[in-house]
Amino acid sequence: MRSSLMSITHAVVLVTLVGWLLVVGRALLIPFVIALIGWYLISALAAAIRTVPLGPYRLPNVIALPAALLAIFFVSTVIVDMVAANLAELARDAPIYQQRLEAVFADLSARLDLSDPIELRDLVPNGAVNRAVAATATVITTLAGSASLVFIYIIFLLIEQGTFDRKFAKLFSTPERAELAFAMRREITRSIRHYVGIKTAMSALTGLLTSVLLTAIGLPYAALFGFVAFLLNYIPTIGSMLAVVFPSLLSLVFFDDLGPFFAVTLGLGAIQFTIGNLIEPRLMGTSLNLSSLVILLSLSFWGAIWGVTGMVLCVPLTVLVLIVCAQFPAARPIAVLLSADGDIGAPLGHGPESL
Fold first, then answer.
1. DSSP category for residue 127
2. For 305-337, how does the pLDDT look when each residue is reduced to its tens digit (9 = 90+)?
3. Chain Cα centroid distance, residue 349
4. Is 122:254 a contact under the CB 8 Å cutoff?
5. Cα distance between residue 288 and residue 235, in whole Å
């Protein structure tokens, strides 16, 4: 009993210490995590470029890797510039839209003959719209400001990636332990690659359809809302709702009648429902094996620690924890609780006792 109590105490202390380090070191860790994501995308794109047939030849890695780096850098620069310009314009016009929204609520209250008129502050805290726009602009500005540091991290990751396997193997005292570690890494890579690949494709489709619909209706900032929908689609549950709410509110105050408002709301809702509830689950399958409740808790946890970045990364990080915990007898109950159905499979390699 005493031994179990000590183990639980050590685990609680360790989790608390790790959480504290994640919060304190977020300014250092977030750029590095973003660099890891960029490095992964560049490596994956370079691998795809090498598969492009050029007669009997294939592009060598020395050409494919710089080409992938330049392509992603160019696309990122264009997106950041576009989003920053749209956000600056939206921040300038936000007070006007807020006044129009208050006028809409006042008119609705008069039509319904309400004794207590509906006011914007009843639904949204005072100044929340401006603060939300400012917070989003701050995120974009922070990303742009740390771009040079992220770029340096990516360059060094690309330079040293050829030595990663040798270094990783030398961390373990026996080949059996090294093989188990490599098996864990392959499983983590497979699961996260599957998730990121499908999620990125579905997010891009969501963003594209959102931009097309809003452009067809005539709502401004269609490209910005398309990018926001693309980004929010990575955030489980609440991301899809927010991607519909923001354009709908703008359409409510931008147009003189309610027709465009219903068109935007129903159209974006149909896009989110079709992609998020019909297409994506069919493509994703059950490979992640994560409980829906765990995803929501993970969303709250990582959002509290790393903000928007943590909310975007909550699913891959939880998948990583599940796979690692599943390999050790003492931690397998944690993996069972994190899983959707309790079936976490047998340990990889030669068993967790060999690690």
1. T
2. 888 788 888 888 888 888 888 877 777 888 888
3. 31
4. no
5. 15
